[in-house]
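--- STAGE predict ---
source: upstream dedup step, 1 unique chain passed
mode: sequence only
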Amino acid sequence: MKSSKILSVLCSLLMALAVLSGSIAVPILCRSFYYAQIGPLGLEEYTGLNEAVIREAYDDVLDYCTGKADTFSAGLLPFSDSGASHFADVRGLFLLDLRVLGASLAGLVLVLIVARYSKLRPHYFLGRGPGFWGAAGLGGAFLVVGGLAALDFDRAFVVFHTLFFPGKDNWIFDWRTDPVILILPQDFFRNCAILALGLVLLWCGVLIAFDLITSKKRPAK
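--- STAGE serialize ---
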Protein backbone atom coordinates (compact mmCIF):
# COMPACT_ATOMS: atom_id res chain seq x y z
CA MET A 1 0.00 0.00 0.00
CA LYS A 2 1.14 3.54 -0.74
CA SER A 3 1.62 5.89 2.21
CA SER A 4 -0.05 9.30 2.21
CA LYS A 5 1.05 12.33 4.22
CA ILE A 6 -2.26 14.08 3.58
CA LEU A 7 -4.16 11.06 4.91
CA SER A 8 -2.00 11.03 8.03
CA VAL A 9 -2.52 14.75 8.73
CA LEU A 10 -6.26 14.46 8.08
CA CYS A 11 -6.61 11.47 10.41
CA SER A 12 -4.63 13.28 13.12
CA LEU A 13 -6.90 16.32 12.94
CA LEU A 14 -10.10 14.25 12.92
CA MET A 15 -8.92 12.15 15.88
CA ALA A 16 -8.00 15.26 17.85
CA LEU A 17 -11.38 16.86 17.11
CA ALA A 18 -13.24 13.68 18.09
CA VAL A 19 -11.36 13.40 21.38
CA LEU A 20 -11.80 17.08 22.22
CA SER A 21 -15.49 17.37 21.31
CA GLY A 22 -16.28 13.98 22.85
CA SER A 23 -14.62 14.90 26.13
CA ILE A 24 -16.55 18.17 26.27
CA ALA A 25 -19.79 16.36 25.41
CA VAL A 26 -19.58 14.03 28.44
CA PRO A 27 -20.37 16.62 31.16
CA ILE A 28 -22.99 18.09 28.83
CA LEU A 29 -24.84 14.84 28.18
CA CYS A 30 -24.17 12.97 31.44
CA ARG A 31 -26.72 14.61 33.75
CA SER A 32 -25.91 12.21 36.57
CA PHE A 33 -22.59 14.07 36.84
CA TYR A 34 -24.56 17.14 37.94
CA TYR A 35 -27.02 15.22 40.12
CA ALA A 36 -24.14 13.66 42.05
CA GLN A 37 -22.88 17.12 43.00
CA ILE A 38 -26.13 18.53 44.39
CA GLY A 39 -25.32 17.17 47.84
CA PRO A 40 -21.53 17.76 47.96
CA LEU A 41 -21.95 21.34 46.72
CA GLY A 42 -24.67 21.99 49.31
CA LEU A 43 -27.08 23.32 46.71
CA GLU A 44 -30.23 22.60 48.72
CA GLU A 45 -28.92 24.50 51.73
CA TYR A 46 -27.47 27.30 49.60
CA THR A 47 -30.56 27.87 47.46
CA GLY A 48 -33.35 26.84 49.83
CA LEU A 49 -34.72 24.59 47.07
CA ASN A 50 -35.28 20.85 47.35
CA GLU A 51 -33.45 18.41 45.10
CA ALA A 52 -36.48 17.73 42.89
CA VAL A 53 -36.84 21.43 42.02
CA ILE A 54 -33.10 21.74 41.37
CA ARG A 55 -33.10 18.71 39.09
CA GLU A 56 -36.14 19.93 37.17
CA ALA A 57 -34.56 23.34 36.61
CA TYR A 58 -31.28 21.80 35.47
CA ASP A 59 -33.04 19.33 33.17
CA ASP A 60 -35.07 22.09 31.54
CA VAL A 61 -31.95 24.19 30.98
CA LEU A 62 -30.09 21.22 29.48
CA ASP A 63 -33.06 20.24 27.31
CA TYR A 64 -32.94 23.69 25.77
CA CYS A 65 -29.15 23.90 25.48
CA THR A 66 -28.90 20.49 23.78
CA GLY A 67 -31.71 21.16 21.33
CA LYS A 68 -34.38 18.96 22.93
CA ALA A 69 -36.59 21.98 23.63
CA ASP A 70 -37.18 25.00 21.43
CA THR A 71 -37.87 27.54 24.18
CA PHE A 72 -35.86 28.27 27.27
CA SER A 73 -37.16 27.22 30.68
CA ALA A 74 -35.65 26.84 34.14
CA GLY A 75 -38.30 24.69 35.76
CA LEU A 76 -40.09 26.57 38.51
CA LEU A 77 -37.43 29.29 38.59
CA PRO A 78 -38.06 32.69 36.98
CA PHE A 79 -35.57 34.17 34.51
CA SER A 80 -34.88 37.44 32.74
CA ASP A 81 -34.59 38.12 29.01
CA SER A 82 -30.87 38.68 29.51
CA GLY A 83 -30.48 35.32 31.25
CA ALA A 84 -32.42 33.54 28.52
CA SER A 85 -30.29 35.21 25.84
CA HIS A 86 -27.12 33.90 27.48
CA PHE A 87 -28.45 30.35 27.47
CA ALA A 88 -29.30 30.84 23.79
CA ASP A 89 -25.60 31.58 23.26
CA VAL A 90 -24.68 28.51 25.32
CA ARG A 91 -27.08 26.44 23.23
CA GLY A 92 -25.17 27.47 20.12
CA LEU A 93 -21.86 26.32 21.62
CA PHE A 94 -23.27 23.03 22.91
CA LEU A 95 -24.86 22.17 19.59
CA LEU A 96 -21.66 23.13 17.77
CA ASP A 97 -19.67 20.75 19.96
CA LEU A 98 -22.11 17.89 19.34
CA ARG A 99 -22.06 18.54 15.60
CA VAL A 100 -18.26 18.61 15.57
CA LEU A 101 -18.23 15.29 17.43
CA GLY A 102 -20.61 13.69 14.94
CA ALA A 103 -18.86 15.17 11.92
CA SER A 104 -15.35 14.22 13.10
CA LEU A 105 -16.36 10.61 13.80
CA ALA A 106 -18.23 10.32 10.51
CA GLY A 107 -15.35 11.98 8.68
CA LEU A 108 -12.82 9.62 10.23
CA VAL A 109 -14.84 6.56 9.21
CA LEU A 110 -15.30 7.92 5.69
CA VAL A 111 -11.62 8.75 5.30
CA LEU A 112 -10.57 5.28 6.44
CA ILE A 113 -13.04 3.62 4.07
CA VAL A 114 -11.81 5.70 1.13
CA ALA A 115 -8.19 5.00 2.10
CA ARG A 116 -8.86 1.27 2.25
CA TYR A 117 -10.41 1.15 -1.21
CA SER A 118 -7.72 3.46 -2.60
CA LYS A 119 -5.04 1.23 -1.07
CA LEU A 120 -3.55 4.07 0.94
CA ARG A 121 -2.14 4.05 4.44
CA PRO A 122 -1.16 6.95 6.69
CA HIS A 123 2.41 8.14 6.48
CA TYR A 124 4.36 7.62 9.70
CA PHE A 125 6.09 10.88 10.57
CA LEU A 126 9.24 10.08 12.57
CA GLY A 127 7.94 6.52 12.88
CA ARG A 128 4.72 7.55 14.62
CA GLY A 129 1.17 7.24 13.33
CA PRO A 130 -1.60 9.87 13.10
CA GLY A 131 -3.13 8.84 16.43
CA PHE A 132 0.15 9.55 18.20
CA TRP A 133 0.56 13.03 16.68
CA GLY A 134 -3.08 13.99 17.11
CA ALA A 135 -2.96 12.93 20.75
CA ALA A 136 0.45 14.48 21.42
CA GLY A 137 -0.61 17.85 20.02
CA LEU A 138 -3.98 17.95 21.74
CA GLY A 139 -2.72 16.52 25.03
CA GLY A 140 0.24 18.88 25.16
CA ALA A 141 -1.94 21.91 24.47
CA PHE A 142 -4.44 20.96 27.15
CA LEU A 143 -1.78 20.25 29.72
CA VAL A 144 -0.64 23.84 29.27
CA VAL A 145 -4.20 25.24 29.29
CA GLY A 146 -5.20 23.11 32.27
CA GLY A 147 -2.08 24.11 34.17
CA LEU A 148 -2.73 27.80 33.61
CA ALA A 149 -6.40 27.44 34.58
CA ALA A 150 -5.44 25.58 37.76
CA LEU A 151 -3.29 28.52 38.84
CA ASP A 152 -6.27 30.90 38.81
CA PHE A 153 -9.60 29.31 37.84
CA ASP A 154 -11.53 32.52 38.57
CA ARG A 155 -9.44 34.35 36.00
CA ALA A 156 -9.70 31.46 33.56
CA PHE A 157 -13.49 31.50 33.97
CA VAL A 158 -13.63 35.18 33.00
CA VAL A 159 -11.23 34.70 30.07
CA PHE A 160 -13.30 31.79 28.77
CA HIS A 161 -16.49 33.84 28.73
CA THR A 162 -14.70 36.82 27.18
CA LEU A 163 -13.41 34.63 24.35
CA PHE A 164 -16.56 32.63 23.64
CA PHE A 165 -19.10 35.39 24.29
CA PRO A 166 -17.28 38.41 22.84
CA GLY A 167 -18.77 41.81 23.53
CA LYS A 168 -21.44 40.42 25.85
CA ASP A 169 -21.96 40.65 29.58
CA ASN A 170 -25.22 38.69 29.84
CA TRP A 171 -23.23 35.83 31.38
CA ILE A 172 -22.93 37.95 34.54
CA PHE A 173 -26.13 36.95 36.34
CA ASP A 174 -28.10 38.68 39.06
CA TRP A 175 -29.47 35.89 41.25
CA ARG A 176 -32.47 38.02 42.13
CA THR A 177 -33.75 38.03 38.55
CA ASP A 178 -32.09 34.78 37.43
CA PRO A 179 -32.01 32.43 40.44
CA VAL A 180 -30.99 29.58 38.11
CA ILE A 181 -27.42 30.78 38.60
CA LEU A 182 -27.65 29.65 42.23
CA ILE A 183 -27.93 26.01 41.12
CA LEU A 184 -25.00 26.46 38.72
CA PRO A 185 -22.14 27.60 40.97
CA GLN A 186 -18.66 28.18 39.63
CA ASP A 187 -17.45 25.09 41.47
CA PHE A 188 -19.68 22.97 39.24
CA PHE A 189 -18.14 24.46 36.11
CA ARG A 190 -14.68 23.87 37.57
CA ASN A 191 -15.57 20.20 38.06
CA CYS A 192 -16.87 20.02 34.48
CA ALA A 193 -13.56 21.44 33.25
CA ILE A 194 -11.60 18.93 35.33
CA LEU A 195 -13.68 16.05 33.95
CA ALA A 196 -13.29 17.20 30.33
CA LEU A 197 -9.55 17.74 30.78
CA GLY A 198 -9.17 14.34 32.42
CA LEU A 199 -10.99 12.65 29.55
CA VAL A 200 -8.90 14.47 26.96
CA LEU A 201 -5.69 13.33 28.64
CA LEU A 202 -7.03 9.79 29.13
CA TRP A 203 -7.92 9.33 25.46
CA CYS A 204 -4.68 10.96 24.36
CA GLY A 205 -2.82 8.50 26.56
CA VAL A 206 -4.76 5.60 25.03
CA LEU A 207 -3.96 6.73 21.48
CA ILE A 208 -0.28 7.23 22.26
CA ALA A 209 -0.04 3.85 24.01
CA PHE A 210 -1.80 2.12 21.12
CA ASP A 211 0.62 3.68 18.66
CA LEU A 212 3.63 2.57 20.70
CA ILE A 213 2.29 -0.97 21.11
CA THR A 214 1.49 -1.44 17.41
CA SER A 215 4.63 0.25 16.07
CA LYS A 216 6.43 -3.07 15.62
CA LYS A 217 3.71 -4.39 13.32
CA ARG A 218 3.90 -1.53 10.87
CA PRO A 219 4.95 -2.10 7.30
CA ALA A 220 8.43 -1.07 6.29
CA LYS A 221 8.85 2.37 4.77
